[in-house]
Each structure stands twice: as C-alpha cells, then as structure tokens.
Design goal:
With 287 residues, the chain is of the alpha/beta class. It has a seven-stranded mixed β-sheet with strand order 6-2-1-7-8-10-9, with helices on one face. α5 crosses α6. It is globular.
C-alpha cells in the first residue's frame, strides 16, 4: 500500500473481505443476472483489482460505493466486462451453422419468398462474429435475401462490445481459418486501409444485422416472434433460476418449429421447459 495515496501499490492486491465479495456478487446478480459463488472470490478479486488501480481507489469498499452511487453507470459496465469473457469467432460451433444452412435456412427462405416476416436473434452477440456468420449463411443460401422481410437482431448487455460489433472490423486471419464453403468471397472486404491485417465484412452482410443493447434478465422489448434464437455461452453466467427464466422467455418468443441454439456446455431440461425439444447437439425446437 502506498502510504501517501492510500492506493494499492503495483503488484499487490487490495484486501477483499467476505462482505466486499458478498456485496459485489449481490450487485452483479441484481443488475446483470451474473452468478458468483464464493469459490470465485480470488478470480473476482484479481480482476477487479485492476479497476481499483485504474480508478485510484484505496479499497473494495470504495469501489462498492462507486458502483452503487449516482455516478457509477460507466463503472457498472466495466464491472460486467471484467467479470465476463467475450470469447467468440466466426462460425463457432460449426455444427450449428451446418444445421442453419442445411435445415433451417431453406425453409426460412421459402417462407420469405412468399412475403412472410423472418427474424433471427443473436442474443449475446459479443463483438459481432456470430450475427455476421448467420448473415453470411443466409446470403449463401439466398444471395437476394435482403429483398425480403428478413432481419437479424444482434444484442449484448455490454454497450462497449456492441459498439465494436457495429464497426465490423476483424483480423483477416479470423476468417481465413474458416472453410469458404460457409460464406461467399463477396462477403469479405479486405483490407481495411487504416488497420493493416484487418478486414471488414461487406455491406450486404452488415445491412442484414441490426445491433442493440439488451439485458436478458429485464423485460424484453419485443412484440413479434423470432424464428431462430442463438444464445450461446451466456447462460453459463446465470444461476439455475435465472437460466430457467431466460429459457422460458425464449420459448415464448419462438413459434412452433422455431429453433434455439445454445452453448456447448449448456442444457435445457425437458422437465423445466417441455415445449423445447432437443433436436441436435445443443439445439432445441419449439413444439
């Protein structure tokens, strides 16, 4: 501890007692639905210690006061970013996109051509690779999909990561690692003049996707249904009660035959959500 400033010296971690952890865990659960068991005390301590140093705060008690205060809005987002991991890539869990391309999209395209409204939701879109992969799959199946009433909504709770997703700029090696059978060459525009070694997705891809900020534990601002929902590796941060509430909300938004794609370590119990029937590896269909 620096005795002049009262701020923890570089390389040392401020003390986090049980009351600090419990208060921060309760805040994260209330605001974001994040479940932080006491076994994660050291993880939370080490990640948030960086925020204390960045803010020149002397203790976790001072940090708690900031979070709860009238001026804590920006730091609440920093807390969320610190406690979650935005790990994603194009066409992640490729079996989901095989299903989307071979089973789901042909039916959606056929309906779109008759004038029906088609909506897909990427809930927990992170930095955008997932919704843009969905858009590329749609364009692969129907290059003129934009002519129809077809849209992809991409949302995340973190406005900073949503802003990054809207930029649609990525390292070129990210897409080079993907088999080109999953997208058209025209979907990628490279290079980005201001960022060497980076590419942007095409306007055709970007124009299919609308971005927004949504907290899944709050009331959802939707009146219409979604034909497909992707929510992968988001529910792992929730406790069982919150998971069940989210699955129920998704089920209510899906029409009969609509599909829900979830993360590789997530499962939905038929006993809890009888209308969501497993129909593939971490894929569920509304009955």
């Amino acid at each position: 501890m620096n005795m002049q400033t009262g701020v923890a010296s570089p390389g040392t971690l401020p003390e986090m007692d049980a009351s600090d952890f419990d208060a921060i865990a309760a805040f994260a659960l209330r605001e974001f639905g994040l479940s932080l068991p006491s076994s994660k005390t050291q993880l939370v301590k080490s990640r948030l210690a960086r925020r204390l140093r960045a803010l020149d705060l002397p203790s976790f008690a001072a940090y708690r006061s900031l979070l709860e205060g009238a001026n804590g809005g920006a730091e609440r987002i920093e807390l969320l970013s610190s406690l979650t991991t935005n790990v994603t890539k194009f066409f992640r869990e490729i079996h989901h996109f095989d299903d989307l391309q071979n089973d789901v999209m042909p039916k959606l395209v056929e309906r779109a051509r008759t004038g029906e409204r088609i909506r897909i939701w990427s809930a927990g879109c992170s930095s955008g690779q997932e919704p843009f992969s969905i858009a590329m799959t749609a364009l692969k199946c129907e290059p003129n999909i934009a002519r129809y009433n077809f849209k992809i909504l991409a949302t995340d709770i973190d406005p900073t990561i949503v802003a990054k997703a809207r930029e649609a700029i990525y390292r070129k090696d990210e897409i080079d690692a993907v088999d080109q059978k999953y997208y058209r060459a025209a979907d990628i525009v490279a290079p980005v003049p201001a960022k060497e070694g980076h590419f942007s997705v095409s306007d055709d891809v970007r124009n299919l996707v609308t971005f927004g900020v949504i907290n899944l534990i709050e009331e959802l601002p939707f009146s219409g249904a979604f034909d497909v929902i992707f929510c992968r590796n988001v529910a792992i941060y929730f406790n069982r009660e919150t998971q069940q509430a989210v699955w129920k909300r998704f089920s209510n938004l899906l029409p009969s035959g609509g599909k829900l794609f979830i993360g590789h370590s997530e499962r939905i119990s038929r006993a809890d959500q009888p209308q969501l029937e497993p129909c593939g590896v971490t894929v569920y269909q509304k009955s």
